Amino acid sequence: MSINISQCSDCGHRVFPARLWCPACGHDRAHPAAVQEAEVLTWTVIPAQGAEPSAFLATARALPKGPILVVRLDTAPSRLGQRVDLIDRGGEGLPLPWGRLRPD
Prior knowledge:
This protein is mainly beta and 104 residues long. The chain has one domain: CATH 2.40.50.840. It has no helices and eight strands. The strands form two sheets. Strands 4-5-6-8-7 form a five-stranded mixed barrel. Strand 4 (37-46) and strand 5 (55-63) form a beta hairpin. It is elongated and about 45 Å long. This is ChsH2 rubredoxin-like zinc ribbon domain-containing protein. It comes from Achromobacter spanius. Residues 6-26 form the ChsH2 rubredoxin-like zinc ribbon domain. It holds the Pfam family zf-ChsH2.
């Protein structure tokens, strides 16, 4: 699975979510680019509230060339740099990309 990011057609700069203009060069044309994996830079746990389970959010760098994403995870990572398979669950009304941690 993968998510689509926006890549500038002029300079190649990659961003998520998409923007009207490239923040690097100001060009106004971009194309979608599929990204399948990322690496965890940092993460946090939002404690469970009532019947809701804990939530795990990570800041991750899409590989190989970025951008940096906020990703929702099913479980907490075991270490920085852990690889994540990216999943687009936007059709489910979820605004953040999801990630499935790869085993160490």
